[in-house]
Design a protein that fits this description.
This protein has a domain of about 80 residues. Helix content is about 65%, strand content about 0%.
Length: about 130
């Protein structure tokens, strides 16, 4: 099962807190909680919840329906990013979100590479048309 990026981000926050409590991390080097405030994590999880609810049955859907699901998740992630002054998702976070979308589609029977190719896209470009983060 595709791992949500927010799970990884929460794990990083917890690990950093443990290291701070143990005195093995200089407080000036702690950044995870600042990068991923709870409101951002919750908002992102809400978006991914909705996306995951749309996945069952997509293996029987046409390309337009599949791209509709991708467009919706990307547009709402754009809104989350905008609510965080366009800084919610940096390069690593963007890649993890795109990987999650691709893996989730694949787990529900979508050949992402074939879908992209049918539309003249590279395998990792299915979000590009709408993505602002």
């Amino acid at each position: 099962m595709a791992e949500r990026p927010t799970t990884n981000w929460r794990d990083g926050i917890a690990k950093e807190a443990e290291e701070l409590a143990a005195g093995t991390l200089d407080p000036e080097c702690a950044c995870m909680a600042g990068l991923f405030p709870e409101e951002l994590l919750t908002s992102t999880d809400d978006v991914l919840d909705t996306f995951e609810r749309e996945l069952p049955g997509l293996s029987e859907a046409d390309d337009a329906q599949i791209f509709g699901v991708v467009e919706r998740v990307v547009l709402v992630l754009n809104a989350v990013n905008e609510a965080h002054n366009e800084g919610a998702y940096e390069t690593d976070e963007r890649e993890k979100l795109c990987d999650f979308i691709d893996q989730s589609l694949a787990e529900h029977g979508i050949d992402v590479a074939a879908l992209a190719a049918r539309h003249g896209l590279g395998q990792y470009q299915i979000t590009d048309k709408w993505r602002k983060w």
